Amino acid sequence: MKKNSCFRIFCLLASFIFLLNFSGCGTGPSDSSTITIWHWMTDRDASFQALAKQYEEQTGIKVDFELYAPSDAYSQKVRAAAQGSTLPDIFGILGEKRDFASFIKAGHILDLSSYMNESQGAWKNRFFKKALAVNEFSEQNSYGVTPGIYGVPIDIMTIQMVYNKDLLKKLGANPNKPPVNFDDFISLGTKIKENNLQGLVSGWGELWMVDCLANNYAFNIMGKDKVIATIKGEVPYTDPDWVKVFTLFQQMRESGILAEGIVTMVNKTAEQLFATGKAVFAFNGSWCVNVYKGMNPKLNYGAMLPPRAAQNYPVSIWGGAGSSFMVNARSAKKDAAIKFLKWLTDKEQQVYLADHTFNLPANKDSIGRIPEVMAQFADDVELSTHPNTWGVSEFPAVIETLDRGLQSIIIGEKTPQQVAAETQKVKEREMAKRR
Amino acid sequence: MKSAIYYKSKKITLNVIIHLFLLSVAVTCIYPLLWMVVSSLKTQETIFSDLSLIPRQFHFENYLLAWKEGGFGKNFLNSIFYTVSVVGGIVIVATMAAYAFARLRFPGRNVLFIMFMAAMMIPIPGSFVALYVLLNKLHLRNTPLGYILCMINVGLSTSIFLLKTFFDKMPKELEDAARIDGCSKLGIWWHVALPLAKPVLAVVVVFNALNVWNEYILALIIFDSRKFMPLQVALQTFQGEFVTNYPLLMAGLTITALPIIVVYLLMQKYIVKGVTAGAVVG
Fold it and tell me: I need a surface site. Which of A317, B32, B79, B248 has the fewest CB within 10 A?
């Protein structure tokens, strides 16, 4: 009996070890002529696969788009692969510009400047300037990266306001002329309340979106140079212009233009409220075209710039490259990878991507062939800016204090002056730490 | 002296309160599952416009679409394979290790046990990059073996802790009797310890099966080939950066949740025993 039981245990262990060994058969390295691309864009995967097939038919070169979603897991994979030197031929970097810079400095990303400038900049000139800016490092950038272009924009995005035309008509306003000035905009608050509607919805619970609108107004009120000077520590947040920016949020609260619970609202909820016709305005990115189409294909809406609060400077919006691809500097198939990216950013392929994924094309020649609301978003891309293109970054602690302060103003907990003082205090603390 | 009616009404009131509380807890647990099933039968548009729990039109085709578009066939088999292998590996290694920690006296036993317990404190996302580099050097990256070994490692410490606690309380007389009958140490482990540990083993099996079945981040990092990916990764197909295909995602989630619910139902009576025996409480 003892022998028998030991034999059974031995068999069990042996079969388990066999199972493990059997399962150890992995895949070998991919075909040497195949270009491998890692991406995180679930909604674009089917279109990428279709284009890869098309490219293979035309050139005989196989392109393997490998999807790794969600984006958090994708970022971890790219970081791990960089450590293990197993990055694919083409990949994307998610995160802030400093992450991008660290990959370049570690030698993982190829400088594309010479390829972009070939034939009098033929490749470079097909893109919106703002789309390239996100992937560009200028002379004397604060990241210590050799100046150049390190990424290829696949699509662009802008963050603006959208308005429901039917609801605007219901409020007695012209559905084709949304408010252009801030005062006209907030004056709609009372009518919105009377009609039991929600005013402006947005994912301000996610902080970065409220930060985005505050920056838009900072550019409008004091101009880019003064905003950059503030980040550099040359202008305090207690400056009257910054207080004016914070006061706009107080005015929005008092006018009733803001939707209830906007401070804790996630963007998904905001999109749902706007798509179902419960909110008149939304502050959202151009990706919303695809979202609203899925939620309510009959939604009658248009895109507009945030209403101007001052006349001195133009309204700037956040935008630029939506998604970009980078070429692995250590890849043996660099040239083939670049050829493919040139093909992917050609007019025809860009129109195909826009038609199938509802993202704005990075190729400016494709704009004439996309739906109206997408064109409204794309029209304003030259007004766009992005913190990644400013060359300087604000301390994360300062951004958080400012954003939380804006939330406090919206719920009536703090005054604009208090928020300005608190933000400046954190700024000084962080600057002292750096020194 | 209080009347019988007083005691009866007190009992009824108490029962009503307890049942109302339990009912509210049950509803809180069941509602998300119910919403998932109901949403899986709606369209993307009606999920946001029709909030009723009974859809006006049932879209059963969502299940077929989810299965096809998510490529669930291969991923489903992968998940079953990983779950069986990992849970099997954990049960064998953890029962042997726990028995050794509880019964054998060897130098460094306590230090080794504390090291195992310390491993419980390290969250797995913190070790992703290190695991990736290690597996890459061992040529085990992008192989099911590499993933299975990592997942066994993830589940070992908790399982050893649960089983050791149980073996510590097990009467030594039973082992003495087995030894008199001629059982070796391995024989005692097989014939005495394991059959007695069935309730705790059920807890170990269910907890680890749940863990492996629901895991996808490590798989996503280790595997490059889609053919090795588990079922949970396939679910991500329906969840975009900005757009989520809710009906297909919910149909996929329902398909994914079913096997683990079946495992739980099969093991339910042992789990209750295991928990009441103090296995989880320790």
Answer: B32
CATH number 1.10.3720.10 given to B69-276: yes
What are the tens digits of pLDDT across the range A69-78? Answer: 888 889 989 9
Q: A80 and B217: CB-CB below 8 Å? A: no
Banded model confidence at residue A27, pLDDT cuts 50, 70, 90 = very low
Residues A164 and A294 in one domain: yes
Contact B142 A41 (CB under 8 A): no
In a domain, A8, yes or no: no
The answer to whether residues A172 and A151 belong to one domain is no
For all residues of chain B together, what is the average pLDDT? 87
B-facing residues of A in 57-116 (CB < 8 A) are 66-71, 73-74, 76-77, 79-81, 83-84, 86
CB-CB under 8 Å, B88 with A2 = no
Contact A77 B125 (CB under 8 A): no
| Residues A264 and A179 occupy one common structural domain | yes
Give the per-residue pLDDT at B279: 47
Distance of CA A170 to the CA centre of its chain: 33
Give residue for tokens 């798509």.
A275
Test the A interface: residue of B83, B140, B236, B241 with most A CBs within 10 Å: B241
The answer, for A49 touching chain B at a CB cutoff of 8 Å, is: no
Would you say B158 and B192 are in contact if contact means Cβ atoms under 8 Å apart? no
Domain of A408 in residue numbering reads as 158-318+392-434
Residues 78-97 of B with CB under 8 A from A: 81, 85, 88-89, 92
Is A383 within a domain? no
Task: Confirm or reject contact between B179 and chain A (CB < 8 A).
Answer: no
Looking at the structure of chain A, the number of domains it has is 2
As a whole number of angstroms, the distance between CA A268 and CA A292 comes to: 11
Token code pair at residue B88: 């099997």
Nearest in space to A385 (alpha carbons), one of A161, A206, A218, A248:
A218
Where would I find the beta strands (DSSP E) of A103-151?
A: 136-137, 148-149
Instruction: Quickly state the pLDDT bin for A31 (edges 50, 70, 90).
Output: low
For residue A291, pLDDT beyond 70 = yes
**Could you tell me if residue A112 is inside a domain?**
yes
Q: Indicate if A298 and A403 belong to the same structural domain.
A: yes
pLDDT digits over B137-183, tens only? 999 999 999 999 999 998 999 999 999 998 998 888 888 888 888 88
- A124 with A218, same domain: the answer is no
> For A311-351, how does the pLDDT look when each residue is reduced to its tens digit (9 = 90+)?
989 989 998 878 999 999 999 999 999 999 999 999 999 99
A326 with A303, same domain? no
CATH of the domain at A124: 3.40.190.10
Q: Is B223 helix (H, G, I), strand (E, B) or coil?
A: coil
Please give, one letter per residue, the 3-state secondary structure of A344-405: HCCHHHHHHHHHHHCCEECEHHHHHHCCHHHHHHHHHHHHEECHHHCCCCCCHHHHHHHHHH
Q: Tell me: the pLDDT tens digits for B45-56?
A: 888 777 788 888
Question: pLDDT band for position A8 (50/70/90)?
Answer: low
Which residues from B are below 8 Å from A83, CB to CB? 129, 132-133
So where are chain B's domains?
4-39, 69-276
pLDDT top residue among A268 and A243: A243
Looking at the fold, whether A272 and A259 belong to one and the same domain comes out as yes
